[in-house]
Amino acid sequence: MIQTARRLLLATVISALFGAAPLHAQDKADDADAYAAPPEPEVTAEEEHSRFAGKLLLTGGVSQIEGAAGGGIVPWAVIGGYGSPGQIGANAFYTHLGVGDYHLSDIGVLVGINNRVELSFAREKFNTEDVGAALGLGRGFTFQQDIFGIKVKLAGDAVLEQDSWLPQISAGLQYKKNDQGAVLNAIGARDDSGTDFYLTATKLYLAQSLLLNGTVRLTKANQTGILGFGGDRNDSYKPEFEGSVAYLLSRKVAIGAEYRMKPDNLGIAKEDDWWDVFVAWAPTRHVSLTVAWADLGNVVIKDHQHGLYASVQIGF
Question: Using CA atoms, how far apart are residues 225 and 145, in angstroms rounded to an integer?
Answer without folding.
Answer: 7
